[in-house]
């Protein structure tokens, strides 16, 4: 790219952001409210649905215990372990489901991509800090709970970045 072209491109990028209202989030008094759900993946179309990559949600009734999420994570963070569950679903004969260690998870979303049964998505829950390592390990039961998000700053993400309403 020529020098003039580079300058025009830089100016164009700057101008595009002039009208965006900037803000400082006063966390934890103010919290983010992301529009829509977290990151999802549609195995039928092979297309990911954009969203925040926070804590996962596991839909027990869809999970077959196939372990593909765990295999996907093996080369990344080894954050997923398959554990026994009390529920016995027809489609989950081994009665195993993923347990996720958020002390290891890097929130890449590959486990969500790998799940062929619409059982594992990510949510907008980003408040996961804890004083103990053990509290960072989420059992299938904990992963099955939809996070309560009562937050007061609505964040919209588009190609110009994050803005609030
Ligand atoms: S999002 Fe976390 S649990 Fe899933 S594959 Fe990535 S590191 Fe593993
Ligand atoms: S969450 Fe999905 S990929 Fe993981 S064991 Fe269950 S069905 Fe298989």
As a percent range, the share of strand residues is 15-25%
In the CATH scheme, what's the topology name?
A: Alpha-Beta Plaits
Which shape, going by the Cα principal axes? elongated
> Share of helix among residues?
10-25%
**Bound molecule types:** iron/sulfur cluster
- Separate helix tally: 4
Mean pLDDT: 87
N-to-C CA distance: 37 Å
Low-confidence runs: none
- Count structural domains: 1
**Lateral strand order in the biggest sheet:** 1-9-10
Name of the CATH first level:
Alpha Beta
Structure explained in plain terms:
This protein has helices spanning 3-16, 68-74, 110-114, 140-143; strands spanning 32-34, 40-42, 47-49, 56-58, 80-84, 96-101, 120-122, 137-138, 153-158, 161-164. The protein is an alpha+beta fold and 165 residues long. It has a single domain (24-164), classed as Alpha-Beta Plaits, CATH 3.30.70. A three-stranded mixed beta sheet has the order 1-9-10, with no helix packed on it. The protein starts with a helix and ends with a strand. The model has no long low-confidence stretch (mean pLDDT 87). One iron/sulfur cluster is lined by residues 63-69, 98, 114-115, 117, 119-120.
